[in-house]
Amino acid sequence: MLSHLLTAQTLEWKAGMYHFFDNTEFLGSSYINDQTMAGVRFSPEIGLKINDHQFSVGFDALKSYGSPNLVDSCSPTAYYLFDNGRFRFMMGSFAREGQLNDFSRAFFQDSIRYYRPNMNGFLLAYTSDDLKAKLFLDWTGRQSQTVHEAFFVGASAAYRKSIFIAEAQALMFHHAGSLQQRGVRDNFLMHPALGLDLAGRTWMDSLTLSIGALVGLERHRALSDQFTSRTGLLVELNAAYKGFGLASSTYFGQGIMIDYASMGSELYWGDPLYRGTFYSRVDLSYDFLRLPYLTGKLNFANHFSEGNFYVEQSLIIQATLGSNSKQFHGKK
To answer: What distance in Å separates the CA atoms of residue 54 and residue 326, rounded to the nearest whole number?
Structure first.
């Protein structure tokens, strides 16, 4: 038994590079800042794999373009992974990339993947032929004199039968007090939806359509124990053909993120443009690199909000080398 366990041990390693250049042109918007985000992340890891179990350590370092610093930030990586093909469990500090791609930008805006590379907590995922589900905890703030205790608890599920899809994502962000400033805020966001997956039934490589609700519930316990709700309709269309992609999302309803003006990204991690009663985004992309170890994407995003038209251009290049590298791609 012991000899079998020893022979099943393998040394795993990988080194990732993530380059991002994202130029947003939102001048005149009252919801979001006009800015350019650019930099490169380097994330090496080494681990020991024993059958379905793996223990890994490493780091994720960021170099922002234009910064005088050699390294602008560095996040340690240390986690345990169990993966038997159907169940996947991760615990510790591990890469966020690829873990939450089933959540729309109303939950996590693009800059999260640039500047918040790691999750700290756990993630449990289940995959079968018809069902995909996950549950996660991400601890984002340890209480101190000035830092507020904060964490996410989230879940998602998607059931597919033939061309039909029933899915839901839900997230609760708990923002407690610091040692100097007391008070608790709770921010819930839910997105149940129904859709169609027409992959393999048209001349395109992929085609999905979904229609669902976006429901926000918030409360500031220092003021009241009652929740304030905001609701709307979210319609999404995604299509791809030979590396070219189109992703469209349109929101109608009450603006969510009620206290964004005072709390900002400290309480809300979603796209601030969902604060409006109407927001439509159309992304036109091209995957100009599609290799097992290297991917490259050009994206041109068109934003319609506040009665105005805004544009955004981005270039993402991602490389992964290692003994057992995997590339992750999201649907949104």
So the answer is: 15
Average pLDDT over residues 107-111: 93
Structure confidence at residue 329 (pLDDT) = 40
CATH for 268: 2.40.160
Structurally, the chain folds into a number of domains equal to 1
What is the residue type of 36?
A: T
- pLDDT-derived band at 289 (thresholds 50, 70, 90) equals very high
Going by pLDDT thresholds of 50, 70 and 90, the confidence category of residue 222 is: confident
According to DSSP, residue 149 is labeled P
Domain of 310 in residue numbering reads as: 2-322
Residue 115 has phi, psi (to 5 degrees) of: -115, -5
Alpha-carbon distances of 55 from 11, 52, 91, rounded to whole Å: 10, 11, 10
pLDDT at 180 over 70: no
Tokens 């999750």 — which residue?
119
DSSP 249-298: EEEEES---TTHHHHGGGT--S-GGGGSSEEEEEEEEEEEEE-SSEEEEE
How far apart are alpha carbons 294 and 262 in whole angstroms?
41
Residue 330 lies in a domain: no
Q: Indicate whether 328 belongs to any domain.
A: no
